[in-house]
Specification:
Layout (H helix, E strand, L loop, with lengths): L1 H7 L4 H11 L7 H7 L4 E5 L2 E4 L4 E4 L2 H4 L8 H13 L12 H13 L4 E7 L2 H18 L7 E5 L8 H6 L3 H4 L9 E4 L4 H4 L5 H19 L4 E6 L15 H12 L2 E4 L14 H4 L6 E4 L11 E6 H10 L13 H16 L2 H18 L7 E7 L2 E6 L14 H13 L1 E2 L1 E3 L2 E4 L7 H29 L1
Parallel strand pairs: 3-13, 5-6, 5-7, 7-8
Antiparallel strand pairs: 1-2, 2-3, 4-10, 9-10, 11-12, 12-15, 14-15
The structure holds 3-[O-phosphonopyridoxyl]--amino-benzoic acid.
The site of 3-[O-phosphonopyridoxyl]--amino-benzoic acid has 17 residues, from α7.
C-alpha cells in the first residue's frame, strides 16, 4: 500500500509530517517544537477557504499571508502561467533586453499608481523590494551630490522583510537580536500604536506626538544625513496598527520640510487591502517610492517590486550610469504574466472598488460587535484588516502577565474551529481575501466569537486550578 501511495504521490497526514520534520526547515519557526507537534498539512483551497490533509475546511482569515487578494481557485491565473511557460518561461532583463510581460505589467501598475509614479523595478519578493529601496535612496542622494545622506528612518515594530536590509529596516527586536542587526545607517522611532502606547491621550494628539518623533530624530542625526523615511501605511505584522488620522499628513509635512524621501511600504496595503490601490492613496500621501509584493500577484506567483516616483526616477535616470543592482528574477516572465492577469481581475471585477464602497463597511460593522466580548479591549479595523486586543481585565485594560500566551491559545482554538486568525502577542488579527462575501464575514465573526468564548473558558478553568 505504501509503495502505491508513493507512486501516486498520496501520503497520509502522518507521512507528510514525518517527511516535513525530517527535511523541511520552516521560516520563523522553532523547528524542535514544531517537529514534536507535527505541521498542519494544507492541501487545497477555493475562494476564501483552505482544506487540510484530514479534510477539515478552514476559513482563511489571513488570505494566505496577507496576499491572496482575489481568493483561491482563479484558474485564469493558472492558465496565463501555463501559456507563458510554454511561450517564454524565462528571460532576463539585464543586458538591453526586455519581454512583453514585464513591459505590460509595469505599465498596468503605473495606471493604478499615483500619477507621479510611473516606473517599476521588479524583484522576487517584498524583502528584495526593500533591499532595492535602500540601494535606490542612497543612489538617489549620490547623484544629487549629497552622498552623506545615508540614513533611513523607520519605526519600532515595523515589518519590512527578512533579508539583511529588510530586517534592519524593520523594527522587530527579536529579529535584530539574531545576526547583529540592524546594519549601519538605519534609525528607528516610536510607532503610532495608540492602544499599546497612547491610551491616556487623545488619539489625534497622540498621532502628532508620534510624528514629532520623526522631526526629533532628523534633528538629532542632522538633516543633511537623513535619506528617507519608511513606513507601512498600516502596520501589518506588527498587529494591524492603524495610525491616528493626524499621523501621516504630519509625517509627510516633516519629510517635505527637510527634503527627505517618503517611502510607503505597500507590500500589505497595496492592491486593494484598504479599498484603494495603494495605502498611500487611502491616507492622501504622495510617496517617492512604494515597495510592493503579495497582492500584486495575489500570491499566485512570487513577485515584488518598487514603484518609483518622478523625483527619484528623473534624477537617477538623467544622471546616467549603471544602477548596479538587480535580481535574476527581476521581471520574471511567468510571475509578470500572473500579476498582470491578477490586476485585470482586480480591476475588471471591481474588487478594489467593492472593498471601498461595500465590504470594508460591512466588515467594520460586524467586527466592531466583538468589542463587547469580555476578553476584548479594543476591536479596530480599516479596509479588510482587523485586530482584537485581548486583555486580562477589560475595565482597567490590564494586559496578561505572560505576554503572548493567550493569543496562542486563541489561535489554536481558531484552527480547531475552522478559522485562520493570527496572533501577534495577545492581539488577534485578520486580513481575509478581498473577495470575501457578507455571509463569509458573518462566518468569520461567528467563529471568532466562539473562539474568544473558548479562550475565556480555558483561562477561567486555569485560574480555578491555580487558585
Ligand atoms: N514589507 C511588508 C510590509 C511586509 O508585510 C515584507 C515587506 C516582506 O515581503 P516578503 O515577500 O519578502 O516576505 C512584508 C512581508 C506576518 C508576516 O507574520 C508578514 C510578512 C511576511 C511573513 C510573515 O504577518 N510580510
Amino acid at each position: 500500500a505504501s509503495s502505491e501511495a508513493e507512486m501516486t504521490g498520496q501520503r497520509t497526514t502522518r507521512e507528510w509530517q514525518e517527511l516535513d520534520a525530517a527535511h523541511h526547515w520552516h521560516p520563523f519557526s522553532d523547528t524542535k517544537a514544531l517537529n514534536a507537534e507535527g505541521s498542519r498539512v494544507i492541501t487545497r483551497a477555493e475562494g476564501c477557504h483552505v482544506w487540510d490533509s484530514d479534510g477539515h475546511r478552514i476559513l482563511d482569515g489571513m488570505a494566505g499571508l496577507w496576499c491572496v487578494n482575489v481568493g483561491y481557485g482563479r484558474t485564469e491565473l493558472a492558465e496565463v502561467a501555463y501559456r507563458q511557460m510554454c511561450e517564454l518561461p524565462f528571460y532576463n532583463c539585464f543586458f538591453k533586453t526586455t519581454h512583453p510581460t514585464a513591459a505590460e505589467l509595469a505599465a498596468r501598475i503605473a495606471e493604478v499608481a499615483p500619477p507621479h509614479m510611473r516606473r517599476v523595478f521588479f524583484t522576487g519578493s517584498g524583502s528584495e523590494a526593500n533591499d532595492t529601496v535602500l540601494r535606490l535612496v542612497r543612489r538617489y542622494w549620490d547623484v544629487m551630490g549629497q552622498p552623506e545622506r545615508q540614513t533611513v528612518i523607520s519605526r519600532w515594530n515595523a515589518y519590512h522583510g527578512s533579508t539583511m536590509a529588510g530586517a534592519s529596516l524593520g523594527g522587530m527586536k527579536p529579529m535584530h537580536a539574531q545576526g547583529g542587526l540592524p546594519i549601519p545607517g538605519i534609525a528607528h522611532i516610536r510607532q503610532p500604536y495608540w492602544f499599546a502606547e497612547g491610551r491616556e491621550m487623545d488619539r489625534d494628539a497622540f498621532g502628532l506626538l508620534c510624528a514629532q518623533a520623526l522631526e526629533d530624530k532628523i534633528l538629532e542625526l542632522g538633516p543633511e544625513r537623513v535619506a528617507a523615511f519608511i513606513g507601512e501605511p498600516v502596520q501589518g505584522a506588527g498587529g494591524v496598527v492603524i495610525p491616528p488620522a493626524t499621523y501621516w499628513p504630519e509625517i509627510q509635512r516633516i519629510c517635505r520640510k527637510y527634503g527627505i524621501l517618503l517611502v510607503t511600504d505597500e507590500v500589505i496595503c497595496g492592491f486593494g487591502r484598504l479599498g484603494t490601490w495603494f495605502g498611500a492613496q487611502h491616507f492622501g500621501l504622495e510617496p517617492d517610492l512604494m515597495p510592493i509584493a503579495k497582492g500584486l500577484s495575489s500570491g499566485y506567483a512570487p513577485i515584488g517590486g518598487v514603484v518609483i516616483g518622478d523625483r527619484v526616477a528623473k534624477a537617477v535616470i538623467d544622471a546616467g550610469g549603471d544602477f548596479n543592482h538587480g535580481y535574476t528574477y527581476s521581471g520574471h516572465p511567468v510571475a509578470c504574466a500572473v500579476a498582470a492577469e491578477n490586476l485585470r481581475i482586480l480591476k475588471e471585477e471591481g474588487i478594489v472598488d467593492r472593498v471601498r464602497t461595500h465590504t470594508a463597511g460591512y466588515f467594520a460593522q460586524r467586527w466592531a460587535e466583538l468589542a463587547d466580548h469580555p476578553l476584548v479591549g479594543e476591536a479596530r479595523s480599516v479596509g479588510l484588516m482587523g485586530a482584537l486586543e485581548l486583555v486580562a481585565d477589560k475595565r482597567t485594560m490590564t494586559p496578561f502577565t505572560k505576554e503572548g500566551e493567550t493569543g496562542l491559545i486563541c489561535r489554536e482554538f481558531c484552527f480547531r474551529e475552522g478559522l485562520i486568525m493570527r496572533a501577534v502577542r495577545d492581539c488577534m488579527i485578520v486580513a481575509p481575501p478581498l473577495v470575501i462575501r457578507d455571509s463569509e464575514i458573518d462566518e468569520l465573526v461567528r467563529l471568532a466569537r466562539r473562539c474568544l468564548d473558548l479562550t475565556l473558558a480555558r483561562l477561567r478553568g486555569e485560574t480555578k486550578l491555580a487558585a
